[in-house]
Amino acid sequence: MSIADTPAAATRPVWFALDKLGVMIALIAAAGAALPFALFRANRIVLGETKGLFEALPGQFSALLTLTLLAGFGVALLRLAPLTKLIVGFSVLAVLFVLMGQSAAFLTPEGNTFARVSPGAGFWLLVFAFALLETDALTRLAFKPLTRVAILIAVAAAMALLLWSGGWDQLSMLKEYANRAPAFWSEARTHLVLAFGSVAIATLVGLPLGIVCYKVKPLRAGVLNVLNIVQTIPSIALFGLLIAPLAWIAANIPGASAIGISGIGTAPALVALFAYSLLPIVSNTVVGLQSVSPAAIDAARGMGMTDFQRLRAVELPLAFPVILTGIRIVLVQNIGLTTIAALIGGGGFGVFVFQGIGQTAMDLVLLGAVPTVALAFAAAVVLDALVEMTAREGKRS
């Protein structure tokens, strides 16, 4: 008789079984709990002094965090309902973020405006572990698209409330923000214009180009090969290659400089991002149109539709989820690539990233990196929901 057939195994509760992914999550979280929770520095550029969980928080808060983490470990390890994992995971993350602010207030000497407190490696590893738990729970629950967007909005609102309440004001990243608030919002607008503007222009050009490539097969290979070559050029190299021709245009074509074209700045950044955006949009347009069922096309022909009517009323609506997937890929890609545009004066959150690297001020790096990651993540969630909604609508029709 096997072990599984023994009475003990037969009567053991199902929830007591270990979750394989949960074991890995618990190990990551345990490593995070052992690493420094916070980093204290006398000023913004000197090497820091690491603080463990019990050094970084007052006694009652360190006890609260310990109990919360133990509960999180247990829920991660056991094969429980995904909804339970989701709720506990969010609760652990909420406690982590709130207590990180308390740690900064606790470690910063009263009246000291030079001291800096940053989240330590342990904090980031704990956030990663329980974010992984959340992702796994959300995948298993398979919420509808609008529910996922609602959860994203709720998380964003909770973070906004934490920042508005002043709970993180003593953290060094927020101190860097306080010193640069007008510049931060100016660069945020530039980042959005470059990322979303390049995708909008690429969509206006790439969608008709993809339709032409779909209709004219001899043209398809040549266009896609050229766009593939552009895609293989490293981003910083492409930004650099555009400086000379755009500078020549600004110097020799009347009115070019007046509308913002120059060798450095937003113009070469926008052109480079536009060039990187074309391949996914054009190729997904071709693939989406090719995937339309021949039966649907034949039915449209039987109804007497012209080629243009079939394209507008049948082929494009059915191909739209695939086309939207290409736009999603491009948008998330460009939100990240826009950071590099700061190297040629393009602006965006990359300004803080490269300033921080030059000054060895990691909190200034985070001031640019964290909003970029959050923006890319939010764009991915929203567009994923739109792709799923359009795909379902296409199946119904």
Description:
- A hairpin with a 7-residue loop joins β1 and β2 (49-51).
- With 397 residues, the protein is mainly α.
- The protein is built from 17 helices and three strands.
- The N and C termini lie far apart (55 Å).
- The chain folds into two domains: 3-172, no CATH class; 181-396, MetI-like fold (Orthogonal Bundle), CATH 1.10.3720.
- The chain crosses the membrane at residues 21-40, 60-80, 87-107, 113-133, 145-164, 192-214, 226-250, 256-279, 335-358, 364-387.
- It comes from Devosia litorisediminis.
- Its main location: membrane.
- Belongs to the binding-protein-dependent transport system permease family.
Record the SSE blueprint.
Layout: H1 7-11, H2 20-34, E1 38-41, E2 49-51, H3 53-56, H4 59-77, H5 82-107, E3 116-119, H6 121-141, H7 145-164, H8 172-179, H9 181-215, H10 217-232, H11 235-241, H12 243-252, H13 266-290, H14 294-302, H15 307-337, H16 350-359, H17 362-396
Antiparallel strand pairs: 1-2, 1-3
The domain count comes to 2
Q: Which architecture of the largest domain per CATH?
A: Orthogonal Bundle
* CATH topology type of the largest domain: MetI-like fold
| Main CATH class of the largest domain | Mainly Alpha
Q: Which stretches are low in confidence, meaning pLDDT under 50 for 5 or more residues running? A: none
Separation, N- and C-terminal Cα atoms: 55 Å
Fraction in helix: over 70%
